[in-house]
Design a protein that fits this description.
heterodimer; A: alpha+beta; Peroxisomal Thiolase, Chain A, domain 1; 9 helices; 22% strand; B: alpha/beta; twelve-stranded mixed sheet; three-stranded mixed sheet; globular
Chain lengths: 272, 399
C-alpha cells in the first residue's frame, strides 16, 4: 500500500515537536530527555482544555501540529487514533470512585473514559465529520493504526487520513500493570496522492512469518529505551528515516508473527 | 465495496446461546431483560445479563485471559459450531490469511474495578496476582488477542473501540483489509460485558431506564445495558452448500463533530453515515426493506435517529430497534444487530419493537411494534457511539 506523508507532529520527553525531533536526528544534538513537555493544544476550547485528560492533550497536540505542518484543511481528513492504554488516567479515577461505600461515576468522567474520547474531542475541535476509528493493539498500536490508515487510503475511501498514536503512563497503582517509560505521541497527515508539500512516500507491507526481519532499532540507547518503553514510540525509526531523507526499508514488530515493512522514499524523488 | 459473504455467524446474549435461541426469542417476542442485580448490588434499572459466565473455564493455555469479557467471548465462539468451522477455514486459507477484528468498549475493566477494591492498605498497590494479568483482561486489546489465540489465527488483528459503534466499524475495517489483500477472510465480532463503570456511568448521565427499555415509545425513559458476544466470518465467496446466504454489502462512517455524549440534534452525522452506506452498496433508499435502528430508547437517540431516517427515507420503510430483547450491548451492539439481521433475512420477518406501547407521536418514520412476516432483500443497520462516532451497515440476502 503506497501512501504519502504530508505532515508530522511529535511529542515526547526532550522532543517538543517535529522540528526538534528532526534536528535531534540530523544535527547530532545530544538527546536530553530530562524535560517532559506539558502540552496545551490551542485547538481545544479553554473550558475543555481545563478538564481534559493527559491523553487528550498529548494526542491533540501532535494532531494539531501535523495538520498545521500539512497546511491542509482538517475537515477533509478521516482520523485513525491508535493507543494501547487509551484513557488510563480516567479509568483510574473511575475505579477509585467505584471503590467506596457509595460507589458512583461522574458523568463527565464517564464520557471521557471511552477509548475514542481523544478522537471525539478532535472531531469537535476540527469540525471534521469524516470517519474516525479508534483502535488498540497493545505493543503494536502504532503498526495497527498505520495499517488501518493505509487501508482507508488504498481503498479510495479517503483522500486524507490524520493518524495519531499516543500513550501516557497510567497513575499509580494502575501504572504497575503497564509501566510505560514516558508519555509519547506521534501524528501523521497521510494522503493518497503526492502533493507539493509531501515529505515522503511510504509503501507498507505485512511480511509473512518466513520473511520476518529484525525490527529496526534506534542506535541511541535512550531513544531505543523509549522505543521499547512506549507503544507510540515504536514509530521512532520511521521518524528517523524521514528526518534523514533516507531511501530505505524500516521493519516493525506487528503482533507475534507477522511483521510490518515500510519502504521509505523522500518526496524529492517521489513519482508524481 | 465488493460484497462479502457470511461464511458463519453466531451470538450469545441475555436472550440465549446461539442463533436458534435468538430466532425463537425474536419470533416469540421474549425479552432477555430483568431487574439489575450485579456483583451483589441492586441498581434501580434493568439489565441484559448472560447467565453462566462465572462457570466458564478457559483451557489452561489461555487461563491468563480469565475475566468476564473473555469468558463471554469464549462462550460465543462455542455456539453454532463456530470454533470448529473456523478451524476448517484455517486449514483452507492458512492461519496467517485470516484477520481478527473485534469491537469492545470496556474490555475486561470489571477485573480492574475489583482489583481496586482489594488494593493493599499499606502500600496502595493492586493485588500482586492481578498486576501481570492487566494486559490480558482490562487492556483494550485483550479480547482481540484472546479470540486470535483461541481460534489459532495469526493474521492482522486489532480491537476497535469507538464506544457503541465499535463492532459495527469492524465490518468496515474487514472490508478494507480484504480489499487491500491484507487477508482473505476476517473473523469480525463484538464482545462487551457488564461492569460497574457502564452501569453507574450511564446512570450518572441519567440515561438508564427504571424498567426494561422501550425503544421509540412516547414515554421511553432510557436504555437498558446488556452484554453479548457475536461473531461473523466474512469471506469473498459463498461457502459450498450454502444455497442462500447473507452478504455484507456496504458501510458508511461519519463523525458528528458536535458533542461527546449527545447526538447532533438534526442527526447530521447519522444522515452522512446512512448516505455513505447506500453509496458504498450501490443501493438506493427504495432497495432497503427494513431499517434496523440503533434505537437505544434514550430520549435523544431515538428522536435524532427518527429525524435522520425521515430526512433520507420516505416514511414507508419499516424500522424498529431490537434493544427491547437484548438491551444495549454497547461495544457488541454492532455485531449483535448484524447477526439478528442475518436471522431476519434468512427467516423472512421483521421484528417489531419489544416493550414499546405507543410510538412517539412526534416521529415520522414507520416504527414497527409487531413482528411482520415478509421476504426481505436488504437491511440497513445504524450504530451511534459516544464521541459522535457513527456507522451504518447494509446487509443483503443472496441466493
Amino acid at each position: 500500500m503506497k501512501i504519502f506523508v504530508h505532515g508530522i507532529g511529535v511529542l515526547g520527553p526532550g522532543i517538543d515537536n517535529w522540528e526538534s525531533c528532526r534536528r535531534l536526528f540530523t544535527e547530532q544534538c545530544s538527546y536530553d530527555d530530562s524535560v517532559t513537555p506539558a502540552p496545551m493544544p490551542s485547538t481545544l476550547p479553554a473550558n475543555e482544555l481545563r478538564r481534559s485528560s493527559d491523553v487528550v492533550r498529548w494526542s491533540l497536540q501532535v494532531a494539531q501540529e501535523a495538520v498545521q505542518h500539512s497546511q491542509l484543511d482538517p475537515k477533509t481528513m478521516a482520523t485513525v487514533f491508535a493507543s494501547s492504554g487509551g484513557e488510563v488516567g480516567i479509568l483510574h479515577k473511575i475505579c477509585q470512585s467505584l471503590d467506596s461505600s457509595l460507589p458512583m461515576v461522574s458523568p463527565t468522567l464517564f464520557h471521557q473514559s471511552v477509548h475514542n474520547a481523544a478522537a471525539g474531542y478532535w472531531s469537535i475541535a476540527s469540525g471534521s465529520q469524516r470517519p474516525s476509528t479508534s483502535l488498540a493493539c497493545y505493543d503494536s498500536s502504532f503498526e495497527g493504526g498505520m495499517l488501518e490508515a493505509a487501508t482507508l487510503l488504498s481503498t479510495d475511501q479517503e483522500e486524507f487520513v490524520l493518524f495519531a498514536t499516543y500513550d501516557v503512563p497510567a497513575p499509580f497503582p494502575l501504572f504497575d500493570t503497564r509501566p510505560l517509560i514516558a508519555p509519547f505521541a506521534i501524528a501523521f497527515v497521510l494522503g493518497k496522492h503526492a502533493l507539493p508539500m509531501s515529505l515522503s512516500m511510504l509503501d507498507i507491507t505485512v511480511l509473512s512469518e518466513h520473511n520476518a526481519k529484525t525490527p529496526t532499532a534506534m542506535v541511541h540507547t535512550r531513544l531505543e529505551s523509549l522505543r521499547l518503553g512506549n507503544p507510540a514510540a515504536r514509530g521512532l525509526p520511521l521518524l528517523h528515516t524521514i528526518a534523514k531523507n533516507l531511501t530505505t526499508s524500516v521493519f516493525f514488530n506487528y503482533l507475534e508473527n507477522p511483521q510490518l515493512q515500510i519502504d521509505h522514499q523522500p518526496c524529492r524523488s517521489c513519482p508524481d | 465495496m465488493t460484497p462479502l459473504y457470511f461464511g458463519y455467524s453466531t451470538l450469545v446474549s441475555s436472550i440465549g446461546r446461539g442463533k436458534q435461541a435468538h430466532l425463537t426469542a425474536l419470533q416469540e417476542r421474549q425479552s432477555g431483560l430483568r431487574p439489575c442485580e450485579f456483583e451483589g448490588r441492586k441498581l434501580p434499572t434493568y439489565m441484559g445479563m448472560v447467565d453462566g459466565l462465572d462457570e466458564v473455564s478457559l483451557i489452561s493455555s489461555l487461563r491468563h485471559f480469565t475475566c468476564r469479557n473473555n469468558h463471554l467471548a469464549s462462550l460465543g465462539l462455542q455456539q453454532d459450531g463456530f470454533e470448529d468451522q473456523i478451524a476448517e477455514a484455517r486449514q483452507q486459507y492458512g492461519a496467517q490469511r485470516i484477520g481478527v477484528l473485534i469491537g469492545t468498549s470496556t474490555s475486561g475493566i470489571l477485573e480492574t474495578e475489583n482489583a481496586y477494591r482489594h488494593t493493599d492498605h499499606k502500600t496502595g498497590r493492586l493485588p500482586a496476582a492481578f498486576v501481570p494479568r492487566g494486559r490480558y483482561t482490562q487492556d483494550s486489546f485483550s479480547v482481540g488477542h484472546f479470540v486470535r489465540e483461541y481460534l489459532q489465527l495469526t493474521g492482522p488483528t486489532a480491537v476497535v473501540s469507538t464506544a457503541c459503534s465499535s463492532s459495527a466499524k469492524v465490518f468496515a475495517a474487514a472490508s478494507r483489509y480484504i480489499e487491500t489483500g491484507l487477508c482473505d477472510a476476517v473473523v469480525v465480532g463484538g464482545v462487551d460485558s457488564l461492569c460497574l463503570t457502564t452501569l453507574y456511568g450511564f446512570s450518572a448521565l441519567q440515561l438508564t431506564a427504571p424498567g426494561p427499555c422501550r425503544p421509540c415509545d412516547a414515554h421511553r425513559e432510557g436504555l437498558t445495558i446488556g452484554e453479548a458476544a457475536a461473531f461473523v466470518f466474512l469471506e469473498k465467496s459463498p461457502r459450498n452448500g450454502n444455497r442462500q446466504t447473507t452478504v455484507f454489502l456496504g458501510y458508511g462512517e461519519s463523525s458528528d463533530a458536535y458533542h461527546m455524549s449527545h447526538p447532533h440534534p438534526n442527526g447530521q452525522g447519522a444522515i452522512l453515515a446512512m448516505e455513505a452506506s447506500l453509496q458504498s452498496s450501490s443501493l438506493s433508499t427504495s432497495d432497503i426493506d427494513y431499517i434496523h435502528m440503533h434505537g437505544t430508547a434514550t430520549v435523544a437517540n431515538d428522536q435524532t435517529e427518527d429525524r435522520a431516517i425521515a430526512a433520507i427515507f420516505q416514511d414507508t420503510t419499516p424500522c424498529s430497534s431490537t434493544k427491547g430483547w437484548t438491551g444495549h450491548t454497547l461495544g457488541a451492539a454492532g455485531a449483535v444487530a448484524v447477526v439478528l439481521g442475518d436471522l431476519c433475512l434468512q427467516h423472512g420477518f421483521l421484528p417489531g419493537c419489544l416493550n414499546t406501547n405507543t410510538v412517539d407521536p412526534t416521529f415520522s418514520s414507520q416504527v414497527l411494534l409487531q413482528n411482520q412476516e415478509q421476504t426481505i432483500q436488504h437491511i440497513m443497520s445504524n450504530f451511534f457511539g459516544f464521541g459522535g462516532n457513527n456507522c451504518t451497515l447494509i446487509l443483503g440476502r443472496r441466493s
